[in-house]
Model the fold of this input.
Amino acid sequence: MPTVIVENRDRRTTILTLNRPERRNALTIELMSELVAAIEIAAAESERRVLVLRGAGAAFCTGWDLNEVSEPQKAHASAELVAKMLLTVSQTRLVTIAVVHGAAVAGGAGLMSACDFVVAAEKTKIGYPEVRRGLVAGLVMTFLRRQLRERDARELLLGGELFDAQRAKEIGLVNRVVPRDHLDAEADKIIASVSQGAPQALANTKQLLEELWSTTVAQDIERALQHHMQARGSDEAKEGVAAFLEKRAPRWAS
Done:
């Protein structure tokens, strides 16, 4: 069973569905590898213009699979793949739309943030609780600093609390909030609008938006990965991940 389902709805639109519903689509090395490959294949087809990301089951994506993260031999490869996944999503020439429901948390919220558009179902829970696991949301921060006011970014990253889709829309993290059964129709409106644009003009517009920043996403990801890896190897991260898996409060050293 593939962990990413690929559907070419028509010659212009590819839909990628994260397919680990039993684990609320938690990110594994396998899933991220399949996602990166699927995006690259879609982008290589000249007629493709739009890429839709969605999640099977009850949630869009609840972040890294902490069972896998807790395995030391996989930690480095997992972190590098998170960076590669976010970079691939954000840098593809295709216009990307995250169709989000249930929950988009930690790495799942980061995946959402890396897209050009976000359509979220009402009552979707979103958040960046990394500090509560002894981790640093460095890779995600690459996108949040481009999308949010600093005060809002500090509140989300330092507080670590979950918030709903309407709050996400108010601060600029989500484009549209609709009832769950209207998600596909709302995404179709964006697809129809984007499809009226000239393919090269769309790609050039995305490229210019990137170039107007003083640093590139790739440069920010590289810097953020260093902070992320430093935190991931810390005693706090070991305790935070263990506490989450054991369903208890973490016992911080001080």
User: Anything to note?
Assistant: The CA atoms of residues 243 and 249 lie 6 Å apart. The longest strand covers residues 13-18. The domain at 4-179 is CATH 3.90.226.10 (2-enoyl-CoA Hydratase; Chain A, domain 1). The chain is about 50% helix and 15% strand.
